[in-house]
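User: For my dataset I need records formatted as: sequence, then structure tokens, nothing else. Please produce one.
Assistant:
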Amino acid sequence: REIVGFDADIINAIATKQGFKIKLHNTPWEGLFASLNNGERDIVIAAVTITPERQKSMDFSAPYFDAKQLIVVKEDSAVKQLSDLKGKKIGVQNGTTGDTVVQKQFGKTSPDIRRYENITLALAELANSGVSAVVADNAVVKNYLINNPGQKFRLIDDKSFAVEQYGIAV
């Protein structure tokens, strides 16, 4: 199965321009950094935000995309910002910067943070009212909404969320 998408397009363009061959492997998020650190993968390009914590164990290319966390809620939700979610269940993708932002606001061990293998599962849980909101990267949730126009979701841009940058991890 061919891997397609923004990151695949970028790395294929780089490989073509630089004259080297690549083989893309679809790897679950939980295993991405371990596969890089153990030498199973040479690079990781998967909407990876450059963070000081990640820079301790891997190097990054120059940033190639500015990202920002967004809050996804149902259209009829009264939520206007992250702090409005206190005491409510919040979905995140495990180990992402969305997870980190929610932990900083509500505590690392908050029982209200629900972690999922991917954002699609978290958004399905939002649709089924299992969580009150999902926090994730803008590009990821906007792409989901484009491809799932029937969802009755709205996006909230919390002013406290900092701009993040994606990089290629090596």
